[in-house]
Amino acid sequence: MIVGVPIEIKNNENRVAITPAGVVELVKNNHVVLIQKGAGENSGFTDDEFVSAGAKILPTIEEIYASAEMIVKVKEPIAEEYGLIRKGQLVFTYFHFASSEPLTHAMLKSEAICLAYETVESADRSLPLLIPMSEVAGRMAIQEGAKYLEKPLKGKGVLLGGVPGVPPGKVLVLGGGIVGTQAAKMAAGLGAKVVIMDISLPRLRVLNDIMPANVVTILSNEYNIKNAIKTADLIVGAVLIPGAKAPNLITRDMLKLMRPGTVVVDVAVDQGGCIETCKPTTHEDPIFIIDDVVHYCVANMPGAVPYTSTLALTNATLPYVLQLANKGWKNACAENAALKRGLNVIAGKVVYQGVADAWNLPMSKIEDFFN
Ligand SMILES: NC(=O)c1ccc[n+]([C@@H]2O[C@H](COP(=O)([O-])OP(=O)(O)OC[C@H]3O[C@@H](n4cnc5c(N)ncnc54)[C@H](O)[C@@H]3O)[C@@H](O)[C@H]2O)c1
């Protein structure tokens, strides 16, 4: 199969969908890999490295889309790319169709096959192509939070680890899933006093078993949250209710309970945030202050660390890319139920219920495409 990897042209997106290691695997399986010139630069991979791995470099995005049978990307196509996608072409990337009606209509019109990273779903209902980015964001939440706790960056002026004779800072993590677990581990590693709250007792039991002694688990409820925010230096929002807006666990009124210079990093901002006053920010202008509380609400945190994020993402995507290239999308999806759940749009038809519901579109039977 001819696999094409364009440059990501969405604002501030520095990742690339394949690494030289991935190219080696594809070429070993007799596939042709076309990489747009400079596509790997912001993630630390040169064109020469891709060529040494066996890829061909093409100068323009138009040539990549025109030649490839499968396009592998990171972010959803943006308006400039809509017209480049061809009938019958397989596009494997994050789409997030439910948040963009124009994208949904453009992909329907293209008659391409759209396989979305975010809905590839394993039998245990986990989302293998979302987990790596949650791991990055969770770990980064502490790095960013620690930074904005510094006085010149508007924080309280607290060093999370403390020093001999001075107690460490206090970190409250709301939600003990992937993001929350990684955040708690990083904060604990710095020596902070960490509290993780979750509504799931089974999850708290697991966390209690695996976390070091400076991490305490507490059931998430309004009473416990109100108490904890009075003394927390850094609060990480990491809750998720699948398919729904994140609940407002910290309301505007509750900000007054916090001490000036407290930092909140609301990682859940992409689902509306779990702190009422959070609204999405960007890496250019990541924070704002309300009632003396520093809010960090960047919606694409992994974009700031493309070296790490590209490797983390491609470690997870490559096995699926190989299956798709080796077998074609139909056979690969027929043999792998997790991959089949990634199919959102096939040849002008919506085949994923969430997308049909989001834009009130007719839902087609996926099985019709497999007979
Ligand atoms: N901003 C970014 O760049 C970025 C990057 C990756 C992920 N995220 C987002 O981070 C959020 C968390 O993702 P995840 O992968 O950790 O999800 P997850 O499903 O692994 O974990 C969510 C946890 O929240 C808990 N929860 C639900 N309601 C709660 C409540 N009221 N109080 C406390 N805990 C509650 C759940 O029990 C679960 O353990 C998602 O919204 C995700 O989209 C954002």
TrEMBL record:
Residues 4-137 form the Alanine dehydrogenase/pyridine nucleotide transhydrogenase N-terminal domain. The keyword Transit peptide does not apply. The keyword Hydrolase does not apply. InterPro entries: Ala_DH, Ala_DH/PNT_CS2, AlaDH/PNT_N, AlaDH/PNT_NAD(H)-bd, NAD(P)-bd_dom_sf. PROSITE patterns: ALADH_PNT_2 (PS00837). Residues 149-297 form the Alanine dehydrogenase/pyridine nucleotide transhydrogenase NAD(H)-binding domain. This is Alanine dehydrogenase. The gene is ald.
